Amino acid sequence: MTPTTVIDIGRQAIEVTLLVAAPLFGAALVTGLLVSIFQAATQINEMTLSFVPKVVAIFVTLIVAGPWMITMLTDFIQRMFSSIPTLIG
């Protein structure tokens, strides 16, 4: 196994990780932005008001995008396992 192969496998792993995490991060970002705008407009400074909607948004996003995320991860792992013989030899 050459250093180039190791770097390529690492790059693919980081890409899959970013793709899988992006919907959750996006949902948290949008929800946090909307709650912050709401808090600024109404001058309500309650910490649970920003935390609870983010948790709910991430949970809903996980339910909606969960099958796609699992498919991405299992496809990557299957590709890694199937390429073990070529990487060793």
Description:
By secondary structure, the chain is an all-alpha fold. The chain has one domain. It is 91% helix and 0% strand. It has helices at residues 3-42, 47-82, 84-88. α1 (3-42) packs antiparallel against α2 (47-82). The radius of gyration is 19 Å and the shape is elongated. The termini are close together.
Brief summary of the model shown:
By secondary structure, the chain is mainly α.
How are the secondary structure elements laid out?
Layout: H1 3-42, H2 47-82, H3 84-88
* Number of helical regions: 3
Specify the helix fraction band. over 70%
Low-confidence stretches: none
| Average pLDDT rating | 92
Oligomer: single chain
Organism: Nitrogeniibacter mangrovi
Transmembrane segments: 16-39, 51-70
Family: Belongs to the FliQ/MopD/SpaQ family.
Function: Role in flagellar biosynthesis.
